[in-house]
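Suppose you are handed only these lines of text.
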Amino acid sequence: MSGNFGALNFPGLRSLPVADMQLFPVAASAQSHSIDGLYWFLTIVSVVMTLLIFAAIAFFAWKYHAKKNPHPTQIEGSTKLELTWSILPFLVMLIMFAWGAQIFFAAQQPPKDAMEIFVTGKQWMWKIQYPDGGREIDELHVPVGTPVKLTMASEDVIHSFSIPAFRVRHDVVPGHYNSLWFTATKPGRYHLFCTEYCGNQHAGMIGWVDAMDRREYEKWKSGGSQGTLAEQGQNLFAQYGCGTCHLLDQQGRGPNLRGLYNKPVQLSDGRTVIANDAYLRESILEANAKIVSGFVPGIMPIFKGQISEENVIQLIGYIRSLSPNGPASQQGSQQGAVVISPSASGGTSTSTSPASKIPVNSQQQ
Ligand code: CUA
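From them, the structure of the protein bound to dinuclear copper ion can be written out as follows.
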């Protein structure tokens, strides 16, 4: 075959020349090299061990062949040998463990100043939302040299977001915010993939990441949009009439959302949780999941199935904007709200709760 395979064309898949496929993708992020280093270590250890084992098999088959060794030798074992081949591999495994754990923990900890971009997976496309309100489908623009944190949600089934050139991948599971982060180091255009089978057009759930240098990125960003993410959320807030209960200047039938983001919330069952992205998402979609102390359940409608994950991200963007220094501290998308003090007492304060104790009314079925 000549090596010219033309292009594969799937519905929704921009032509993907087979010639562009490489055994090893380019390394275009800050974490690429540490991940590649571990990968090569694993590969080399595996190859060396395999060669040693095969060499030993061949050598012993030759040395103890029945013709040369007609009377089998009885070997009773050797403690020294047993200890050696137990302890040495154990130490090598420990190196793999420590090295892998170090990379794993680094991958879980986006820097506090990371730029945040939101990704929603949907059969069969990736929808991207930027804090300034810009939106794209199957295209992700990031600046080079800036840590970028992706907060990801799924509209339907499990997808998996992967950028091989950045050595990042994370499952995108419905019902959760999932996140990953990277720092692009090389300007260029890189593939992004869905790497979890998600239906008959899974193979077409593919897109591009554009890593641009700072200046180019600022120029690209200055395109028009329908307001910032927070403004889009504010419009939705008005559209759904949220403001009739969630008053901003006083305590209404729903909790005041001003200053809420990432603050502790006292629940009616005595627990205290942090109003992070996961908590806000849950409270928007399923108001009765966590009832806030001092508020009556059964007022707020259930929005699950009524609004999209993108809308939820916009609403959270608006709620964040109500906290002056909110987005600076993003503990946001860690899974589930954090229980600080399970036995916090005094959770039954009636009348007006302080703004930091933000309830979300819930509805009993
Ligand atoms: Cu989405 Cu595969």
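What can we learn from it? The chain is about 30% helix and 20% strand. Residues 152 and 178 are 5 Å apart (CA to CA).
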